[in-house]
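Troubleshooting: if your tokenizer reports a length mismatch, compare against these two reference records.
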Amino acid sequence: MLIKTIKINDIKSSEITSESSYYARRDFLISLTAIGGGIALGSLALESKAKDLKISEFKENKWTKEYLGESLTSFDDITNYNNFYEFGTRKTDPSKNAKDFKSKPWTIIVDGLCGNPGRYSYDQIIRTSNLEERVYRFRCVEAWSMVVPWVGVPLKSVINLFNPLSKAKYVAFETLLDPKQMPGQKSNILEWPYREGLRFDEAINPLALLAVGIYGKELPNQNGAPIRLVVPWKYGFKSIKSIVRISFSEHEPQTSWNMASASEYGFYSNVNPEVSHPRWSQKKERRIGEFFKQPSLMFNGYQNEVESLYEGMNLRKFF
């Protein structure tokens, strides 16, 4: 299924599983696992009903400005203007320094409060459901943005695989720690490895995606190969790259930029034009490849799909 999410109207509130219903269902599944004697660590046999789709089957020529309402950012700009501090702090560093990065074979450790912990291969992760192509706005905290045709699988389908316990209120992620391959990790600009996290209800929102490709091509090294998170209503640094660990926890996990500067980078990091970064305004943004700035949109334009997640919250306090 292709989801055009530049003007997303096809995910209805009635289709979003409530948190209470989700907890009840997954606890039931875990109880069945316990009755059956459990599943050995790392030996989970997957019965995938996903079609044998390949990333190359997704082509960008269907995504016209007339259809989307906005122009796609070029492949060249997407792959040569990046924040990926593991490979350097300048926007052109990742494309230069990530050329020899080895993203195959790849495994992801799953641990914490879940029924199916273990070490999973890349293929196991992406076979949890059909690959999809989703066009999302991608907004950086530095006030630049892109429109990207991602290829990936819904994060929710992957989470379902691991049967998280009802006590799991958060999902945490870690990036590979390998200073030999990632020269930026030799610096002290952040505490490595890179860490990120979502509240559980955010993680199972239908918009959250584990991306493995762009523009019908495998995800380039500089964009987070082989698998990265895409959370389109949040600033880009929440969309952690080159994931090697997924953990389920009861308590809010530490996140890299919040650890580095809590006054500048909150845990939630939702795109909110009304909450300025301490050093610049977030009211406007500049689309890469374009000259003029445009107004920033609340939740990056996905307000209808996610605002219920934050009902009653003070979004200036929980920024």
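Reference record two:
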Amino acid sequence: MTSIEELKETIRNCTRCDLAKTRKNPVPGEGDLDARLFLVAQAPGEKEDEEGEMFIGRSGEILDDFLGYAGMEREQFYMTNLLKCLLPGYRRPKRDEIGQCSRYLEKEIEIVDPEVLVPLGYYPARSILEQYGIEVPDDKSRIFNRIWFNQGQKIYPLGHPAAIVYDDSLKEEMREDYGKLRVLSKDCKWYSLCPMRRFYRRGELDQKWIEIYCKGDWENCKRFQAEKAGEPHPDWMLPDGTLRERLKVLSENG
């Protein structure tokens, strides 16, 4: 599987688990192979199973609405599933099914090499966090809407659009959550001039600060907020607003 087309063909002919007996069409991933953001849903729905394409059912309509709210289009992403085949009766995925299918997801990630993995829903989030050596919180609510960073990879879990099908009251909140994709689609506009970049390149600042804020959720960076408001802030203030004395000494000594 050296190319995306070879990978897709392998997925379409896969019989590694019992889901091959009940599916109509496996659904390989699709989208921009140079995408910065890489969406991972749980599994195809019935419409996707019939047509062999990603997000063409009701969940796809909701996803397009959320992306539109964020000022983005699905063509800006690479999109795939944790499992490439329909789960009978929309049941939960089994560990062995995820294990058999995970090699395809890993290869897709290798080919696309995205800045941010965006798992949609609990099972994709759990699987991807575990893949990158991150301990999954018992409290599911602590998994979502935050950046995780380990082994050089950023992960930003979101709720799955299908949640709206069952509870429309979640719509506005989830729209706001998906709005963060606009932020994650580019680096902070002040990153090239930020003291954090200088400290990081000198080995004085851990990479996590850069990835989680400067190249991640820069909208929640206290430095960004202060700069936007025209408020003074010292060079040694970290993105979370804390002051680091070591950086103060370095700043004063040039």
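Descriptive notes for reference record two:
- The radius of gyration is 20 Å.
- The mean pLDDT is 95.
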